[in-house]
């Protein structure tokens, strides 16, 4: 088939970026035969899927040796919707192992490289998805966002990344990292494409108990008119964080653009946001410890070839050999904060902080229509620069994790490049289930930056 041959050539041209965990050409040929007969909003569009989302018949590795040989037995709900809309799934995207990382260097398949500059990281954990769109091999991609894993790679690669409200998109068929924080969302070249893909994948799903019963508006209609009388809140506490000079300058320039357009700019308070990183890395690791307990090499997953003296040793060998360093670190941290004697001191307290952060956003968004901030404190960093310093790596998420804790939607749109040519992201945060409003402002900023 002509499209298969074209794809082979294009993928050879981008092999240096290490975007895919694999492409099953036989599966793809059959898939194309089916999809070419469909006429829908995604007909003829290439889509790459993060490799923690089930596509029936394809591996779902989660970037880990634990699941390297496992194939999905069913489609995630978002995949069913994409297939029904005529979308063409060309492959599964590389990712940080089990979505735990901010650089896409923690993968059993090796690091993804940023198509903007391959000496730099593309961001994580949805780095492969963002790189697929940035490289031009895909029109759209799906990622998952637990603490910034869609928005941060979008910022680093100059693409658009949307984390919907918690419950807006079904998580059925998504391999869980932290179930109360995870959300599937689009990574695209333009805001209009993000609106289009969200409209297709959003909606209630009875198979996901956390799926919200909310109507799905026509998001693309929000982009037809310039936003009017929008009150834009700037969180003064977060902007006291250490921010790269280029990022701060681009952010202030974008705010000036909004001010000149007649939007009201005001300061808002998110006083408990300073505790967000600490609370997140307690809540997320606790849930990860619980969710990843199922991967023991018994029913599926990696099984050690070494002889075990007892059942405990058998489990330990499987997990020790299959999991990478970052996943082990987070499992141990999560197990610790859930352990007897420490639960109230750590996990219980983090849950209380979560409630305070939610209240902060609720209060701030009652005074403003939207909250804006940089997506990341710096542009992309060099490969290997932060691998030996987990705390420095975690601080990349300082502007993103609070949004997952609060469950509100957020969009990252490009806001120019540094002098070194590295993209930067402008983050727009909205009220729950008001994705249309953030898409509207994002589209306005996108047009001003063209």
Descriptive notes:
With 450 residues, this protein is of the alpha/beta class. It has a single domain (1-450), classed as Amidase signature (AS) enzymes, CATH 3.90.1300. It has helices spanning 2-13, 25-35, 77-84, 127-135, 151-157, 191-201, 245-260, 276-291, 311-322, 325-337, 343-367, 390-394, 401-406, 435-449, and strands at residues 20-22, 46-50, 88-93, 140-145, 160-163, 183-188, 231-235, 264-268, 370-374, 410-417, 423-429. Strand 7, helix 7 and strand 8 form a beta-alpha-beta unit. The mean pLDDT is 95.
- Apparent shape: globular
Beta-strand residue percentage: 5-15%
Measured on Cα atoms, how large is the radius of gyration?
21 Å
Determine the CATH superfamily: Amidase signature (AS) domain
- This entry's quaternary arrangement is single chain
> How far is it from the N-terminal to the C-terminal residue, by CA?
37 Å
The number of domains = 1
Structural topology:
Blueprint: H1 2-13, E1 20-22, H2 25-35, E2 46-50, H3 77-84, E3 88-93, H4 127-135, E4 140-145, H5 151-157, E5 160-163, E6 183-188, H6 191-201, E7 231-235, H7 245-260, E8 264-268, H8 276-291, H9 311-322, H10 325-337, H11 343-367, E9 370-374, H12 390-394, H13 401-406, E10 410-417, E11 423-429, H14 435-449
Parallel strand pairs: 2-3, 2-4, 7-8, 7-9
Antiparallel strand pairs: 1-3, 4-6, 5-6, 5-10, 9-11, 10-11
Helix pairs in contact: 6-14, 8-10, 8-11
């Amino acid at each position: 088939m002509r499209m298969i041959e074209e794809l082979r050539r294009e993928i050879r041209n981008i092999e240096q970026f290490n975007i895919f965990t694999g492409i099953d050409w036989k599966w793809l040929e059959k898939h194309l035969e089916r999809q070419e007969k469909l006429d829908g909003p995604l007909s003829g569009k290439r889509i790459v899927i993060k490799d923690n989302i089930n596509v029936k018949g394809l591996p779902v590795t989660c970037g880990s040796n634990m699941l390297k040989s496992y194939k999905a037995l069913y489609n995630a709900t978002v995949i069913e919707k994409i297939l029904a809309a005529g979308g063409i799934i060309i492959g599964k995207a590389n990712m940080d192992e089990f979505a735990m990382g901010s650089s896409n260097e923690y993968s059993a398949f090796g690091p993804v490289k940023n198509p903007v500059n391959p000496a730099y990281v593309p961001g994580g954990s949805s780095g492969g998805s963002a790189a697929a769109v940035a490289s031009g091999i895909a029109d759209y991609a799906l990622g998952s966002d637990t603490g910034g894993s869609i928005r941060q790679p979008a910022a680093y690669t100059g693409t658009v990344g949307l984390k919907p409200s918690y419950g807006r998109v079904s998580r059925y068929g998504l391999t869980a990292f932290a179930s109360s924080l995870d959300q599937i969302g689009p990574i695209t070249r333009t805001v209009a494409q993000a609106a289009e893909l969200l409209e297709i994948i959003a909606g209630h799903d009875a198979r996901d108990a956390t799926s919200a019963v909310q109507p799905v508006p026509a998001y693309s209609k929000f982009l037809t008119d310039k936003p009017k009388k929008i009150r834009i809140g700037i969180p003064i506490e977060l902007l006291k964080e250490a921010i790269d000079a280029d990022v701060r300058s681009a952010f202030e320039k974008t705010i000036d653009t909004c001010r000149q357009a007649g939007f009201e700019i005001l300061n808002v308070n998110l006083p408990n946001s300073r505790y967000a990183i600490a609370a997140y890395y307690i809540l997320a690791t606790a849930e990860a410890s619980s969710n990843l307990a199922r991967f023991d090499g018994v029913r599926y997953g990696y099984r050690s070839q070494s002889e075990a003296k007892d059942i405990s040793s058998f489990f330990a060998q499987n997990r020790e050999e299959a999991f990478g360093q970052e996943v082990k670190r987070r499992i141990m941290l999560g197990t610790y904060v859930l352990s007897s004697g420490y639960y109230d001191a750590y996990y219980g307290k983090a849950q209380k902080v979560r409630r305070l952060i939610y209240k902060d956003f609720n209060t701030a968004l009652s005074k403003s229509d939207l909250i804006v901030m940089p997506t990341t404190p710096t542009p992309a960093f060099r490969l290997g620069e932060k691998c030996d310093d987990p705390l420095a790596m975690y601080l990349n998420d300082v502007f993103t994790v609070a949004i997952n804790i609060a469950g509100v939607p957020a969009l990252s749109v490009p806001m120019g490049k540094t002098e070194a040519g590295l993209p930067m992201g402008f983050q727009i945060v909205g009220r729950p289930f008001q994705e249309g409003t953030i898409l509207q402002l994002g589209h306005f900023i996108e047009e001003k930056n063209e």
